[in-house]
Amino acid sequence: MATDTGAPRAAVDLITAAWRTQAVFAAVRIGLPDLVAAGRTDDASLARATGMDEDVVHRLMRLLVLLGVFTRDDGYAVTDVGDLLRDRPGSLRDMCLLYGDEFYAAWGQAEDAFRTGASGFEKVHGLPLIPYLREHPEAADRFQRALRAGNFFFDSVPEEIDFSADRHIVDIAGGGGHLLSTVLRAVPRARGTLVDLAHTLPIARAHFERTVGTDRVDLVAADMFSGDLPAGADTYLLSRVLGDWEDEPCLRLLSNLHAAMSGRSRLIVIERLTRDDGTGLLSALWDLHLHVLNGGRQRTLDATRALARRAGLDVERGVPLPSENTALILRKLPV
């Protein structure tokens, strides 16, 4: 009788998954994708360029070929996956570095976070995520670049949602401005307002200077939970914000938005919705990642709708976006 090796192999793959993460992280820190792309396509030249032992280079590259980062024929070549790990604009390199360093360490406290609800990030780094980023500018820059790297689906937002009637679009906690600039490029007659904490606004200003121009965008430093938000806009954007917080802070934020919205305003909330139907692996992973980082969560559609209704808002419809993201269109409930 043949031995079933499927389940043991699947279990081993789960147990050793962290090795893959750290092998790719180390390769990116060392710069192997960039070196191969620059023509260092054999073990000896990579060893000379990195100062590594040639045998270790060979063993690491063997694994990275199996993981799909490189191919090897006459020499190594970068795959499409490996190209996304290079030090170049639009790559996922900074995401790899952030998730392989600060976030990886936070996940080392996952059991405690699951048992007690305490932040794994705060336990290992001594500060909650946002204060940590304020005190560590290099990590903050990497965090913003990692967020930008994860914004590849933003182009689909104006493709799937009609903004043509809008004249004023407000992005709450808009970060570096990438979503707002993407929408404004699709709606040349609209103006935008980006609301975020003061330390993020220079990053957003630089981005708007490179894209749609600062003459079309106002930058507002405000606390979205307690400060007054720009009133009467056609559309408000809230992308990947609710997932960072438990219900009560989200309720304060949604109530602030309700107060700012007119009867014709709409709110577009972009999140990864969790499901209990056996689908949505990425959303389930992100849900626990947010919990480990700062006690946040991804919500189901029903939970999001219930939270919105407590703030006087109703989910009108959902629009599927790439990478398990969903844009929910919310409007004020009738009085």
Fold topology:
Blueprint: H1 6-15, H2 17-30, H3 32-37, H4 43-50, H5 54-66, E1 70-72, E2 76-78, H6 80-83, H7 93-100, H8 102-107, H9 110-116, H10 120-125, H11 129-135, H12 137-149, H13 156-160, E3 168-172, H14 178-186, E4 191-196, H15 201-210, E5 217-221, E6 235-239, H16 247-260, E7 266-271, H17 281-294, H18 301-310, E8 313-321, E9 325-332
Parallel strand pairs: 3-4, 3-6, 4-5, 6-7
Antiparallel strand pairs: 1-2, 7-9, 8-9
Helix pairs in contact: 2-7, 4-5, 7-12, 11-12
Describe the overall structure:
The protein folds into three domains: 6-83, Winged helix-like DNA-binding domain superfamily/Winged helix DNA-binding domain (Arc Repressor Mutant, subunit A), CATH 1.10.10; 93-148, no CATH class; 152-274 and 295-332, Vaccinia Virus protein VP39 (Rossmann fold, 3-Layer(aba) Sandwich). The chain is globular and about 70 Å long. The protein has 335 residues and is an alpha/beta fold. It has helices at residues 6-15, 17-30, 32-37, 43-50, 54-66, 80-83, 93-100, 102-107, 110-116, 120-125, 129-135, 137-149, 156-160, 178-186, 201-210, 247-260, 281-294, 301-310, and strands at residues 70-72, 76-78, 168-172, 191-196, 217-221, 235-239, 266-271, 313-321, 325-332. A hairpin with a 3-residue loop joins strand 8 (313-321) and strand 9.
